[in-house]
């Protein structure tokens, strides 16, 4: 183990030597840059762009470009990057992580790689943890870029689409991780290409990279909405289908389990719902609800297909008769059965789009990050993001004193000691920063200090701008500040007059965090840029981390020595035990994030396919070829099902095929049983497809080509969006329930991958069916316009990424390969939802 550590240490040493050489080359140009007048310095930007156009690379320009930014920074801000900052800047350009201690000037360091990479014109995103820091850095650092002729944008949640587009068109865009991620999701929900705001994701530098890519890695960004499918409509559709007569208003084929409205039934529906045309494009949702209500009432049988138990519909396994608790039929069929049985209708999918930070940031061509604490998570950065961590030395040696932990038997004893320590230091004027893990601890300490009459400030990551002000003052004489972990991060604590002589800033930790990194962040608040300082952690055997990991042996030891609550123990052994406990927790958390990523990769691949196809739809001039291909696939699927070439023609169900075609593709009597008799399945496909193309031509003549093209987009987008929305929800529920399969040598991840793939295939088929049906059958009576399937809004999720547990779902039910598919398509299970099993 020691050997590996030495090796890693040597690697970092070797890396620093290489970086130092580059920094020396940049430094060597400082005299030349100083001599340039402003106009010549500004002209360098165009010169670099021309050199790039002629074939030079960013690496070729790095030394000179960094020297230019360094000089511009001196002229504009009066700040001149140190050599260590130049080294950090090289690390960032190479797509790695620069670990630079608090107060070493990370923000200024980032200006060099940002400028260099912005020269390509493809855009650079600088990602911060909150809006306050984004505004501050865009304003401050923006002066350097603007001086050098680059544009700067700021991306904030409250901005309009036009403002966001302008921000993203800039060479450099500042914003938060949440906002960049939400914009990506919203861009993939737009109905018109002109409404997209982002450009392709090129290069991002993440400030506080450990916070975003590790602490928040499991946090899903969710755009949720109220789906327009209301529960009311299920109840109305259910009441309507109960008034219908078999063979008059609808046809039912028991064998293939298909049910369809006749012309008479369609007329009845139009009268009942007070509409002119059930197939008008505006009534797609109603049509869907009626079809599902028909299936619920006339195909699905109580106590055969499902049972009603405690006000819930529970699916019955058709072979074993077992109740499949927690599973739901998809596409609204479950809700239709709930309406039929008069039990509460559970809402349909509310998630319109979702992505985790892990997967959003992995889409950038190049990613870099900076933070004061990343080395402890190096393995995770390397494995998941392919980024190395390089520890950059401080500009001046750190002289801060980090004292061993003090451990008390009880929390009460610990807090008394903390308050005593604060009072003692406060009396002599030394500033104190107290770090807490939870808001309750902050409030408890605040009460105790108030009782002692000690004036103090409390911060708990609620108001970022105000916190930055308070944190900036935390180094003044006599200041006492209580802060939860993240509060005021990104703001420097500068020491006030006379504070150095008092020993600098004292940092007191009231509990160890389960991650060493967070403890190191708190420590790093003191002793910046060679300032003096002291840090001390107070622990008790009742702290959560100590309770979880072996506090009993320490308790026994304290009792043996007859130590009471006011006497702490301070030992290296105990501090080591705490650290190894933290390592164990970190390891567990890493494994959890890695596992989540493996599951998340399944939906990531599917999301990329859908978003790519969706983009093709909104940017395409003419979708007719694609749609005809979909219709042909649908016809082939149904011909194979009703008239399978491997079956005896005597067993073919040509009536069923004609019913399907009449209900979904062509006007009644356009295709009859006599037309199909004597034909081979392949000839049937050709015959029907030719009819479809003729009908398509007629529609195009009626509407005119321009309207027809828009009609194609409206239909396709609606089908893709509604099915994808249902699919996200189904995948989420499958994910929640998959761990129940971890028995009998079954690997839940493999099960999830296989079932997720089958569900995706089924969704693609459902999209094709919908597009075929509505292109051929829907009519445009009123105005034609693209509409969102549901209104969405961004949800800032809980930071631990845990969503409320949902019931597990599976899209399919166990059915024999030759049985009719449960979905009511009329096809055999093996040719429908069971095709990929």
TrEMBL record:
Subunit structure: Monomer and homodimer. Part of the essential Sec protein translocation apparatus which comprises SecA, SecYEG and auxiliary proteins SecDF. Other proteins may also be involved.
Annotated SecA family profile domain residues: 1-570
Catalysed reaction equations from the record: ATP + H2O + cellular proteinSide 1 = ADP + phosphate + cellular proteinSide 2
Entry keyword Metal-binding: yes
GO molecular function: ATP binding; metal ion binding; protein-exporting ATPase activity
Keywords from the UniProt entry: ATP-binding, Cell membrane, Cytoplasm, Membrane, Metal-binding, Nucleotide-binding, Protein transport, Translocase, Translocation, Transport, Zinc
Membrane protein topology class: Peripheral membrane protein
Cofactor: Zn(2+)
Cited InterPro entries: Helicase_ATP-bd (IPR014001), Helicase_C-like (IPR001650), P-loop_NTPase (IPR027417), SEC_C_motif (IPR004027), SecA (IPR000185), SecA_CS (IPR020937), SecA_DEAD (IPR011115), SecA_motor_DEAD (IPR014018)
Name recorded for this polypeptide: Protein translocase subunit SecA
Occurrences of domain Helicase ATP-binding (ranges): 87-245
Primary location: membrane
Entry function: Part of the Sec protein translocase complex. Interacts with the SecYEG preprotein conducting channel. Has a central role in coupling the hydrolysis of ATP to the transfer of proteins into and across the cell membrane, serving as an ATP-driven molecular motor driving the stepwise translocation of polypeptide chains across the membrane.
Annotated compartments: Cell membrane; Cytoplasm
Key word RNA-binding present: no
Residue intervals of the Helicase C-terminal domain: 410-575
Residues annotated for ATP binding in this entry: 85, 103-107, 492
GO cellular component: cell envelope Sec protein transport complex; cytosol; plasma membrane
EC number: 7.4.2.8
SMART domains: SecA_DEAD, SecA_PP_bind
Natural source organism: Caldibacillus debilis
An individual GO BP term: intracellular protein transmembrane transport
Record-stated family: Belongs to the SecA family.
